[in-house]
Amino acid sequence: MSGTISYIAIIEAQSLVRHGLERVLSADPRHVVVSAVTDRGEFQGAGERPDVILYGPPRDCAEEPRESVAELAGHGKVLVMHDFPGSFSVLDTIRAGALGCVTKEISVRELLVAVRTVGAGGYHVSPELAPRLHAELNRPARPEPRVLARRELETLRWLADGLTHGQIARRMGLTEATVSTYVKRIRSKLDVGNKADLTRTAIELGLLRCGERRTAVPAPVSGTVG
Questions:
Q1: Domains, the chain, ranges and CATH?
Q2: Is the pTM of this model over 0.90?
């Protein structure tokens, strides 16, 4: 931290939230907001080296912050502000390099405390998130999954796109029974049951990126054109 002043960068896509944070932090003489931008690309383009990066991850992808936080941690101390839905791990966010995790229900007082704590190199987790963090710390480690074969990984990606076994079979030139066998193997290797858990686990393990989609290839059409 630079003397008694904390230099802060805000990364938040929602304009109202971003301007509100900038106004609150700028009102404290101990803080100087050096940039307030909508995304990581804009922040990196500005070339700032703040003491604290207040980062609001995009809402559309719960897994994206781990990669983003790790990248931002090379530019400053990261304080993540997010709603933290069920699939968003507080522990993984900290492991990625964040020094603080707070919710968007945070009070002005706690926000100022969190910024000062993180700026000084300490850790701050909102009281509302403490039970989540405790549960994640005590959760049994998932066994390392067996490697998926190329065709199994391709099947997994089509499943993540929402295709049925029959649709996947047509696109891959296989029988539906073969696709069903692939799906059984995938579930066994990843140790998951339903489709939602399958997709989420694949993203968590880095087998799929959040938002990744295959380019749909039209299935062959039988018959003749009159």
A1: 6-137 (3.40.50.2300), 142-226 (1.10.10.10)
A2: no
